[in-house]
Recover the amino acids of this structure.
């Protein structure tokens, strides 16, 4: 019986690792499917509740997201990813005020400034968001998430070379699957077949390991 229980826990741990890798890679459908399977076995799984909530939020299913995020928060009330995502689930008119309060709470560290710049750009003043992002890059020049955000902004404003350069800088600072996926998409649009193939190969390896 003990061996069976240990084996069962080991499988859940592996499944949770699968969730983490695929969430980081932006594979939200896979995460939702796996998280639901885990919750059937253990409704108090922090990882399953958290990432199911995060994925529903990304898919703009905010009522469902709130349900799982608040359950996860009840299991760990110090998780900053959950705190940020619950702000995204609020009404648009509340998001900027709450994001500003979040940045103040965490003394404008790299994480909170990236979040605030993203919220400004997406829900308020795009110029203010860009200005804050540039200021944050000067203050935190080794924070990869800031370069990834700048790459995304370059992409949506059709500055493909700028997007590629910023995703490359993010990758140089930290090897994260979604950064390779983002750069691969840009390189495809830039007709860089070799670079695209290399990025997607690394991306696939990172989410499968």
């Amino acid at each position: 019986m003990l061996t069976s229980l240990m084996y069962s826990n080991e499988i859940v741990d592996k499944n949770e690792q699968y969730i983490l890798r695929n969430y980081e890679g932006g594979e939200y459908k896979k995460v939702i499917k796996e998280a639901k399977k885990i919750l059937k076995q253990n409704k108090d799984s922090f990882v399953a509740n958290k990432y199911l909530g995060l994925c529903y939020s990304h898919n703009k299913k905010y009522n469902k997201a709130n349900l799982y995020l608040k359950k996860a928060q009840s299991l760990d009330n110090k998780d900053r990813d959950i705190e940020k995502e619950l702000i995204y689930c609020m009404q648009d008119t509340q998001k900027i005020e709450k994001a500003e309060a979040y940045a103040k709470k965490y003394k404008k560290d790299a994480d909170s400034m990236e979040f605030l710049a993203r919220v400004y750009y997406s829900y308020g003043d795009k110029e203010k968001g860009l200005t804050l992002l540039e200021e944050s890059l000067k203050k935190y020049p080794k924070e990869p998430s800031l370069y990834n955000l700048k790459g995304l902004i370059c992409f949506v404003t059709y500055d493909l070379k700028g997007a590629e350069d910023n995703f490359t800088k993010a990758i140089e600072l930290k090897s994260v699957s979604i950064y390779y996926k983002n750069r691969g998409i840009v390189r495809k649009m830039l007709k860089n077949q070799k670079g695209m193939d290399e990025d997607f190969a690394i991306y696939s390896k990172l989410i499968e390991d």
Summary: Residues 1-10 have pLDDT under 50 and may be disordered. DSSP finds twelve helices and no strands in the chain. The CA atoms of residues 99 and 116 lie 6 Å apart. The first helix runs from residue 2 to 24.
